[in-house]
Amino acid sequence: MQLTLFILLIFISLTSQASYGAEFTYHIPTGNTFFQGRKEELSKVSSIFKSENIVALVGLPGIGKSALAQEFSWKNKDKYNVILKLECTGDIRAQLINFGRSWNQRCATPLEKIPENYLTLDTSLQILKSWIPESSKKNLIILEDGDKSQEIKSILTTFKDKKDKFILMTSRSLNVECRKVHIEKLNRQDSIGLLEKFIEWPKDKLDKISSLLGDYPLALTQAGVLIRALPSMTPDEYQKLFEKKRSYLESLHQKVNKDTDEESINYKETVFATLALTFEDLKKKNLNAYKALTFLAFLHPNHIKEDTIKECAGLLGINKDLLHELIYDLVNSLYLTVDTTRENNAVSIYKMHPLIQVALKESLPEGTKSEIQALWVKYFRSHFSGGPHELEKFVSDRSDYYEHMKTLIEDIDADHANIQNSLELKIDLARVAVFSLADFEFGDRWAYEAEEAIKKGKNVNNFAKGRLHNTLGNITLLTDVNKAIDLTLKGIALLEKEPHKISKAEQLFALINNLPDYYSIQGNITHALEALKKAEPILRDVNNPSYYCIFFSVYANMLMFQGQNEKALSLINKSLKSIQEGRLPEPPYLFVKISKAEILARLGNFEESLKLATICYDELMKICNSDCDYKAVRLKITMATNYLFKNDLAKGLKCVTQAIEHCNKLVNGSDKIFLQGWAHLVLGEIYERKKDLSKAWREYRIAERIYDKINPNCV
Known about the structure:
Layout: H1 3-10, E1 24-26, H2 39-48, E2 54-58, H3 65-75, E3 82-87, H4 92-106, H5 121-131, E4 139-144, H6 150-159, E5 165-171, E6 179-182, H7 188-196, H8 203-212, H9 217-229, H10 235-251, H11 253-256, H12 262-285, H13 287-296, E7 304-305, H14 306-315, H15 323-332, E8 337-338, E9 349-351, H16 354-363, H17 366-383, H18 388-397, H19 399-415, H20 422-437, H21 440-455, H22 462-475, H23 481-495, H24 501-522, H25 525-542, H26 545-561, H27 565-581, H28 590-602, H29 606-624, H30 630-645, H31 649-666, H32 674-689, H33 693-710
Parallel strand pairs: 1-3, 2-5, 2-6, 3-4, 4-5
Antiparallel strand pairs: 7-9, 8-9
Helix pairs in contact: 1-5, 5-6, 7-8, 7-9, 9-12, 10-12, 12-13, 12-16, 13-15, 17-19, 18-19, 18-20, 19-20, 20-21, 20-22, 21-22, 22-23, 22-24, 23-24, 24-25, 24-26, 25-26, 26-27, 26-28, 27-28, 28-29, 28-30, 29-30, 30-31, 30-32, 31-32, 32-33
């Protein structure tokens, strides 16, 4: 398979595939039984795609935008080679990782295998923006809620005017910068047709209900669900119930609805009234199902696994023998719909319409909402805990939990709720987002919000404060290395006050992973070695092969910087042995092989070093697709060093000039990175070999200036 197809695969909502006429489809559902009408809107999209390649379906929430986008992809599946869909309000990282796993298993050749642990939102976006627009395939990409993600917005200009590359997005905003198709209420004939899918009434009675509910599809669907459950109900009886409920909601106007737009107010109160009636019916029919539904409303609505429903039932003390009936009633009422994009039917995934989620939460008293939020925080804290290794493993094994915890924290923040341990959960999420998932949009924001909350008097223990300081240190690294070091040292000092094993693991990670890296950027190897020495007794206490691997590798790097290359090689081999004996996944530890390549170069083993560096670089580019990466820059300098001593000056010059350019981009023009000094030294030596002494002298002076800025007394 070509890399172009690989990129086609990488950027989309991940969960499973179904085979249609297209060569490859991903996360595209089968036909929707309850889809009705919209012929004019479907025709408009097809017409616009003849001259433009980006279309937005805009309209009120729940009006049918997503259903129409899915129907378009289903009806036109034979017209595209590849069809992909991304849910932009979901956990994009989780979608990408799940897809990567599927791609590795089903499609990738050995050379195209994607190391799972390196699939991040940032690198996947780079792949999408670099490769898909240039592909020879005819592609359709569906972006659900495409205006909700800043990262996704950046791809729209990439696709503009590209031949055979089409984006169909949904948006509640009218401000999207592309051709728009406005999705409004159904016409009367289609409203009647939708109701006929649920109830067998004469058309005049269906017309009466359609008029009553404003031809809004979600309201009509819920009315159909209720009337189907109560077959003796008459149109007049339903109208009486609806108008009474709507009148009650209007009396709570400020609570239910903060919109000033009259159409939006009318729409929400109509839909919420129909939902309130079905909620009441569910309460009478199956109270356990209703309680479970209210709990599920506080999680991410698009990725509710059956296991999550079981866990929810367990929280509520519901007998597991009642679970099948509970799920049946929720699905039969269309509160949950089965995600038909999933290939593995053994694992059922359900979705809740966001408007149902909002209506449920707004129907609950504040005290009940707080109780549910508190129970979920307690539940997640009991599972999502431990040292850095445990947190990373948890979100790797249960990426859906990360989505749910994000949704829960955002909801608590929106309510300004004072939920016990919610700040600690936010700090844990920030830590894993920054260090493990590269989800910087949320990780950085959560860390700063947690810092601000503590400054305002919110009380958390020293462990949480220490973890937060370590996270903030990493966030500030590229803008202020000294501040990053100071924050990390303060974090370690706080963690030392909490002598339990989890606190020791957090200290250990900071001492072997964070501080040495920060000090080496400064060129201060003495302090880096001191941090490693301090880590040794903690390393033995924690006794985790992952930490041993990091420790030996980082220690090897520090000795290499001091010129102790033989000892460094011995330690790097110990690190590689830790990977093998601990049966650790190799991709996350690519940095160990990168270090070995540099050590070999410094030992004069240029052929072996160049071979290993080239292999590492190829592996890195499969997962990174960007030369502006710290590891990529380091490899380029290592390769340049090898070419220098092999006297292949042309290749050396090319590698090192690329490294300098990309390093400057990486640090936003700063010249306070140790790596930059090394690159300019190598470039100076290349010019000296070429007898261009003025350029050589210039590069040596640049290197000297960089080292002086980093630390005048660097060792």
